[in-house]
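Exercise 7. Predict the joint structure of the components listed below.
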Amino acid sequence: MAKKKHAPKKFVAEKPKPVKLTPIDKSTLTKLEGLADKVVNAAMRGRDPFLDIPTRALSNVRFNKTKRYIEMGKNTNRRELFNLNQARSYMQTLLAGSGCKGLIDEGKTTSIRGLYYRMKHTIEGAKEETFNNQGESDAVIEDLEVLANSLREELHLYADKRGEMVGPIVLEDMGDEIDCARMGSGGYGIPSIVEPDRIKFKRCTADFILHVEKGTVWQRFNEDKFWKKHNCLLTHGAGQPPRGVRRLLHRMHNELELPVYCVLDNDPWGYYIYSVIKQGSINLAFESQRMTIPDAKFVGLRSIDLERCGLDMNVTIKMNDTDRKRAKQIMKYPWFEGKKRWQKEIEKMLQNDFKLEVESLINLGISYVTETYVPERLAEGDWLD
Amino acid sequence: MAKKKHAPKKFVAEKPKPVKLTPIDKSTLTKLEGLADKVVNAAMRGRDPFLDIPTRALSNVRFNKTKRYIEMGKNTNRRELFNLNQARSYMQTLLAGSGCKGLIDEGKTTSIRGLYYRMKHTIEGAKEETFNNQGESDAVIEDLEVLANSLREELHLYADKRGEMVGPIVLEDMGDEIDCARMGSGGYGIPSIVEPDRIKFKRCTADFILHVEKGTVWQRFNEDKFWKKHNCLLTHGAGQPPRGVRRLLHRMHNELELPVYCVLDNDPWGYYIYSVIKQGSINLAFESQRMTIPDAKFVGLRSIDLERCGLDMNVTIKMNDTDRKRAKQIMKYPWFEGKKRWQKEIEKMLQNDFKLEVESLINLGISYVTETYVPERLAEGDWLD
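Solution:
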């Protein structure tokens, strides 16, 4: 092929294109403007402006047995402008709202770190800074999410990208049509923002989704073309899946009615990842509704696998005190508490006093996991729920 | 679109396809078999078998001023079978060689963790295990690389996948043709193994490569379609780029003759990343030849940018003791030592006593970095080298 060796061209600035707001953008703007209107209205009526912010704390989180996910309660904290202790965070909250409005108006997105840098300045006529560190700004952004009832992604904020997908699905992503069945060994890097106005499902012939914990395991499944043989989508989240991956799984599960099977390690961390995919996390309870998959199944390694698969003791990893403590905590999660099979599973893990990683199956053959272990579990309907 | 809800199908095992060895595979096998032959030959001649393993230590690493990268010296350590202190690591080295031969024979790849699990077993008739932990196995794999003069990827071992690419290049990846100009917001997930037998460059019209440090910054450049406006490839390595990203950059730089520009932070870590891309790392000096890009340019943030860009002091990050120590170390790297501009740059950073992240430019506008900062540097030829 022809070789190139050019210096970069002189750049000529283009005129910015007019921004086309999506229906989601319009709805988010309305919510943000509603917050601003409350300030104006309070001022007009000669009242002290305030915000009632839903309490993001363990005390205000509960497991909804009907919906089968963790949700926030109704407690709120009042944040007032004319209160010496609250004025700063009140101002920060409105600043974050204004920052996100600016992003939507400009048709741009940024990271929460980016928004922090954007909002950071010295307040005019004072020596005070708007934010002293990113921790302050991150907390205020989470407040804003619940306050404006908008996902972070709808506020045009993205997280770091992790996780990939391959399989028989065609997506439209920012105008490009992407066939995830033709991605080679690389895969489609799952974006951080996968809301319906940005990512559209065009065609999908898959029967289910197989979600694996780690990128290295995903590579094994992809190289063995598991997704082709079993007609499924294959995703991973590089450990604890980031928001983009969870949201995409949620959307595909609900909009395409695809069951989700998770291949995770037999250790407290693997069980915790499953729990977050299924029921949500306590920290981000506000987002459960649009993130969790209560029907997700666990087809990962099990505490009986040493015997069942005839594995050697020397591929096990001894549990430490933290592991034991975490396992006991997870057993007591309300959504595991009522489930006999999960109780037995975690009890057996504690009894074993060792952990088993998916990779340990390699001891039985490089492709044992893709050709025997997972296919057998799926065929037998042998999963934890 | 039509909705689906199927249970996974019953799996019918396929007959394994005959493995087709690539020219790279054949050459790697020859090298591995050469190692095994040495054992046989020694035995036949009644001699004690041994391996001479190139020393992987600082004392055996030097900066080659002509080649402009870090390379290994010629020192070796002898590892003997009939030596009580060396028998174990001798056996482990051959076991790793045999494990990698098995992978190539089977036409499969795995992670270094996977190979560890594959090799781990209790030695027959003894209580001794082949490997006690992955640390032992990782070190032996690095020995094998230098011993067999083969990159890890040629031994069919992969690292965790990180990093993505978009831009006007069409690749062939495991038989799929991938157009990186049609990847939406997601991007092509750069594989861990990008050797020429797996990744082929089909068409490329780009003029250069812009490599950015972090995924969040990459998202900004991708959203602003920087790569379209400036006709370049846009990559990131999620921090310190993993081997796959470094190797792909190296291949594209050399085979497609594309200059590489790096957008990194103004801090010791950013400078270190640049140093590794450009001259290689001390730990992996063996691979410099096929990984480093001595001509890579630094267009990241500079110590003069507070004044030059009119940034506010409050977007700076104070240096700590570790930062100061690292900066002084980097100043003394032989490849920075002779360069006046780099010396001035790092001296000024130490004088500033603060760091500047690429994201801090957001304070001047969401797209300041993509529309002003980087285009100006490129147009003016204003980079560090």
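Discussion. The first helix of chain A runs from residue 23 to 44.
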